[in-house]
Amino acid sequence: MPDSARGRLLAGRLFDKSAGEGPRICACFGVTRDAIRHSIVTHRLRTTAEIGVVLGAGTNCGSCIPELEEILRDVRMPAS
After folding, report:
1. 10 Å Cβ neighbour count for 28?
2. DSSP label at residue 26
3. Is-contact 51 37, C-beta < 8 A?
4. Less CB within 10 Å around the terminal CB: N or C of the chain?
C-alpha cells in the first residue's frame, strides 16, 4: 500500500487506487473522469454507447450520460 493511502485507511476509508484519477463520473461502476478521457482517446470512442461497451459507464442507471456527453465534447473538440 502506498504511503498516500495510509491516511484514508486510518480514517476508515478503504484504499482506492483510482482516487488519483479525478472524480467518479459513473457511480454505479466507479468509473473516473480520467479513465473515461483515456478510453475516448485510446479507443477513439465517439458515443456514450461506445463508452458503455468499453467501461460500463452509462449502462446502468444512466444518470452519468450527460456528463459522458460533455466529456466526449471536451475531448473531441478540435484545437483552435
Report:
1. 15
2. E
3. no
4. C
CA pair distance 13, 42, nearest whole angstrom: 31
32 phi and psi angles, rounded to 5 deg: -90, 165
pTM beyond 0.85, yes or no: no
Place of cell 488519483: 20
- Answer yes or no: are the C-beta atoms of 71 and 36 closer than 8 Å: yes
Grid cell locating 41: 482517446
Residues facing residue 24 across a β-bridge: 32
Beta bridge partners of 31: 26
Give the span between the Cα atoms of 4 and 27, in whole angstroms. 23
- Band of the pLDDT at 76, cuts 50, 70, 90? confident
